[in-house]
Amino acid sequence: MLFQRIDSKGIQREIIDYLGIWAGVTLTALGLVWFLIPNKIAAGGVSGLAVVFYYSWGWPVAVTMLCFNVPLFLACLWVFGPRYGAKTLFGAGFISIMVDFWERVVRLVPLTRDPLLAALYGGVLAGIGMGLAFRFRGTTGGTDLAAQLINKYTGMSIGHALMVMDGIVIVLAGIVFGSTELALYAIMTIVITSKSIDMILEGLNYAKAAIIISERSDEIASKILKDLRRGATGLLGRGLYSGKDKQVILCVIARAEMIRLKELVKQIDPAAFVIITDAYEVLGEGFQE
Fold first, then answer.
1. Digit-coded pLDDT (tens) for 140-183
2. What is the pTM of this model?
3. 175 and 79 share one domain
4. Residue 223 contacts by C-beta under 8 Å, 6 or more apart in sequence?
């Protein structure tokens, strides 16, 4: 029975993952078809190259993306082994299918011909889609795969490899289209896409983590427990300058509670040392289960 439950949960998780990747790929394809492709915004990556090839030689964007993604996937499968499995192939292949579906079957009309609006909304939509694919343990393929191959054989970090490849695509698009403005719009799209991916992966409703060092830590902890109704953890610390042992308070609060926490600490011990930082994901009682 135990193994049956594990298998059942595993299958359910796999189904959810594939549905999430499908939703992400669909949104990314919409961002391309509605905004980026019709406005000649080649925002790096395989999709950017496909836009350049489309306007240079008339090659369908979906076919060009597939022609790049399949060899990259096979190369990664050969080099890195079976960890590049079905989900990567599904995402990398399905994005071409969805771009072709929106373009040729549904025949979507571009929502705007203003390149600024296209760069903004195309970047947001593509970023949300890619973020969803990543969140459900998938990928949209493209330069993510190429960057890992470059990292393997040159030692260049994946981030730098992505930056170099996106830069080459943007420069190429600017030369082919004869427009510096389109290259600048493409850079803007990349930045917006990156921020949108972070938003999906990290969330908007992030909390605040507070570290409090005080001579009156017990009083402060008691107030946090009673007034804010938040948990607090006492950590053993030692001041290296003073040589004294101290209790360090660690607590996590909602953003709206940050001002109350600072006021509470100041009332008890104005000399307390307080560090407040963002906590993008908090799992546990009182937060996300």
1. 877 777 877 887 788 776 667 778 888 889 999 999 999 899 99
2. 0.76
3. yes
4. 264, 268
